[in-house]
Amino acid sequence: MKKLSLLLKILFSKESLRVFRKAWGVLFSGIVVTIILTFFAISSVNDYLEESFALEADEIRTRITFRLKAHSQVLKNGAAFFESSDSITRQEWKLFIERSQIDQDLPGIQGIGYSMIVHKNELHKHIDKVRSEGFSNYTIRPEGKRDIYSTIIYLEPFDWRNQRAFGYDMFSEPIRQKAMIFARDNGSPALSGKVILVQETEEDIQTGTLMYVPVYENPLEVKTIEERRNSIKGWVYSPYRMIDLMEGILGKSFIEDDIELEVFDGNSTDYNNLLYSSITDEVKKTVFHKEHTKTITHQIYGSVWTLKFTKNASPLNSEHSGNIYFILLVGLVTNILVFALYFVMISNRLKAKELSELTESLSVSEEKYRKFVENALVGVFRTTTSGDILFTNDALIRMFEYETQDEFLREKAVFYYKNPERRKDFVNQLKQYGKVTGFEAEFVTKYGKVVSLMLNCVLTDNQIDGTIIDITDRINAQRELELKSDELQKTISEKDKFFSIIAHDLKSPFQGFIGITQMMAENTNDFSISELSMFSQEMNKRAKNLLKFLKNLLDWARVQQGVIQFEKENILVKELVLSDIETVKPMALNKEITIEYNIVETHSIIADANSLHSVIQNLLSNAIKFSHRGGKIDIVSQISNKNLIEILIKDYGVGMNEETLSKLFKIEERVGEIGTEGEESTGLGLLLCKEFVEKNGGTISVQSEIDKGSTFTIKLPSAK
User: Fold this and answer.
1) How far apart (Å, rounded) are the C-alpha atoms in residues 576 and 645?
2) Exposure pattern of 588-626 as b/e (b: 16+ CB <10 Å)?
């Protein structure tokens, strides 16, 4: 205050005012020019903020779209699960949802359920059935007489909130009914309008919406709207509480950002149709003006959402405001400097006194800075551009696992880089820009440990001053996340191919049924009794093959979900094989095939008997199918060099080529072949064999040559 008082006294003395009259004119003119340039800079920054805001809004819209598509895919998988079986139990549905791990991969979903259609003549029978399952108070709500009811019978997780929806007839409510009809008639996902979920209580009420995917009796035969209406049996659906849903998509930290989002149901921004708002009460209190607003109308799954984005951003408080203040500051400083030239002599009168005070202040500042650096939790250093280390604090020494600073300073900086080329990149960036922020590289500590560090530095007089932060944990977590993402994408791709194969294998026998029955229906009187008997036998054979296919498919699905329990025990190989030979013996006798075995009496294994019976019967059935009439099948047991029992099943039939061998045991490949006498193969048997053998801790392999036969080898842990 004393220095300021002295300066003002000198500047505004009569003598000073006479000397500086012209300087005041120059100063005023310069300030006017500076203000004009500043307004130009404000306009430029504002244009940039508008463009950046538009990009942010579009990114948020894209994230919402992708997440809703991911939700629809989950519901489609659930619908396919129901369509693959005539009866899905409550426990099977629960296991399906738990195995999907949706709460981890797609947070924000209130639940996933199934609503089935109940006709009025089946109402009481349906209610009695559900009550017999342990839900004595179950009924369909709301009560009343209707031609068609829809009732929520499954909803996971079945917690206290979701239990409020158990038995609710969504088809009785117009908004939900509109979406359910859209999904049913179009065979696609549908999103409802704004509703209040029946899960809501008196506290923390949120607006909601629901997504539906139809489930049909015969999905492969449904093509037209009329067929869809006749074939519909229910909907797999998901209710969403909008705040929970949007936090799951955008993250809870979204409300802390400077961009605000409001979601409206429909084409307008009428607040009666407000679905979601990120604007909290605290934000409303601090908002004085809204610089940027953007509205996007978004159509998805039969519904229209209007997204309204608002950003409270001014050019003067944005991250780019530095340019504005720089122009303003430089202009003012320049004008002041010009003005200052006129009173340099006067300011010299203060130098003696100021020098004394400045020296004292500098000493205090240096001491504070030294203590700050020494006690900092991050690494602090100074080096030359050539790599000589001039200074480090204790945190950096500990980071590199050294005990003393002298020991650390012996080496050049490049010595600690895992890849010395990264040091060159670092120095080049420094020389080009004068500073480096967020530079990441891998370093090697004294004991050979590799750590990931982030550097923030400035270049001053050929010396580098900076800080180092250890980001090893973050980098490792990021790599693990990328690996998990790649594995998930691969699994999804394999599942898609597998479902395509299943659809093809289901279609073929049904087409055969349709062809035979149509021919019999149109030309009944033209066929003899023997011909009709032949047709019946053919239909019976196709039906049995289809039943076997569905059984294998169901067994495989149960293995994937962990439903099948494997109870391992000591099993004598000979007893196991003889039992399975008896099972397939009628099939072998039908083709005059001899099954010979050479099983060591004492050979025993540790495995689940039921699953191994399925494996050996599958392999024997295949051997019979692909053997010529009058052929032979050999079964042998032996001990391998790794304390494993090998069971070899060898036929002398048609064999397989290299291309077919490469496709065996792969979920995404279809290898169903026709036997030597036209026997059909489901294509799932070998896949199920592989699953069962591996669940028992073993392996399965095959060797084959065209026209020489095939040998399947099962290796399982010995019981001895």
Assistant:
1) 13
2) beebebebeeebeeebbbbbbbebbbbbbbbbbbbbbbb
Looking at residues 223-235, what average pLDDT do you find? 92
- Asked if 587 and 618 count as a contact pair (C-beta separation under 8 A), the reply is no
Query: What band does 33 get if pLDDT is binned at 50, 70 and 90?
Result: confident
Question: What does the chain come to in residues?
Answer: 720
What does the pLDDT look like over 281-298, one tens digit per residue? 555 544 444 567 889 998
Cβ atoms 611, 566 nearer than 8 A: yes
| Torsion of the alpha carbons at 65, 69, 70 and 73, rounded to the nearest 10 | 180
The Cα 402–Cα 411 span in angstroms is: 12
Q: Where in the chain is the domain with CATH 3.30.565.10?
A: 485-717
Helix (H, G, I), strand (E, B) or coil at 210: strand
Backbone angle region of 204, left / alpha / beta, with phi > 0 → left and psi within -120 to 50 → alpha: left
Largest CA distance in the chain: 134
Q: pTM value?
A: 0.44
pLDDT digits (tens, 9 = 90+) for 48-70: 777 777 888 888 889 889 999 98
Compute φ and ψ for 354, nearest 5 degrees: -65, -40
Higher pLDDT, 2 or 222: 222
Where in the chain is CATH 3.30.450.20?
376-468
Strands across the sheet containing 190-191: 148-156, 112-119, 232-241, 208-216, 190-191
Look at residue 354 in the predicted model and tell me its pLDDT: 56
Q: What is the dihedral of CA 102, 104, 107, 111, to 10 degrees?
A: 40
Sign of the dihedral through C-alpha 504, 510, 513, 514: negative
With vertex at residue 637, the alpha carbon angle to CA 633 and CA 640, rounded to the nearest 5 degrees, is 135
What single-letter amino acid sits at 50? E
Instruction: Give me the architecture of the 376-468 domain, per CATH.
Output: 2-Layer Sandwich (3.30)
**CA–CA gap between residue 78 and residue 155 (Å, rounded):** 12
The Cα 714–Cα 605 span in angstroms is 11
Closest CA to 311 of 356, 275, 271, 259: 259
389, 463 contact by CB (below 8 A): no
Three-class DSSP labels, 625-667: HCCCCCCEEEEEEEECCCCEEEEEEEECCCCCCHHHHHHCCCC
Q: Is the pLDDT of residue 644 over 50?
A: yes
3-state SS string for 507-567:
HHHHHHHHHHHHHHHHCHHHCCHHHHHHHHHHHHHHHHHHHHHHHHHHHHHHHHHCCCCCC
Which residues on neighbouring strands pair with residue 646, listed in sequence order?
A: 638, 715
Residues 155 and 164: beta-carbon distance below 8 Å: no
Phi, psi of 592 (to 5 degrees): 60, 40
Angstrom distances, CA of residue 234 to CA of 34, 186, 215, 558: 71, 14, 5, 23
- CA–CA dist 126, 138 (Å, integer): 10
The CATH fold of domain 485-717: Heat Shock Protein 90 (3.30.565)
% of the chain exceeding 90 in pLDDT: 27
Q: Top-level CATH class of 60-311? A: alpha beta
Asked whether 294 and 50 are in contact (CB, 8 A), the reply is no
Contact present, 710 and 653 (Cβ < 8 Å): yes
Instruction: State pLDDT tens for residues 173-215.
Output: 999 999 999 999 999 999 999 999 988 888 888 999 999 999 9
Q: What pLDDT is stored for residue 327 in this prediction? A: 74
* CB neighbour list of residue 597: distance below 8 Å, 6 or more residues apart: 574, 577, 578, 581, 634, 635, 636
State the pairing for strand pair 632-639/594-598: parallel
Chain segment 384-393, per-residue pLDDT in tens: 888 788 888 8
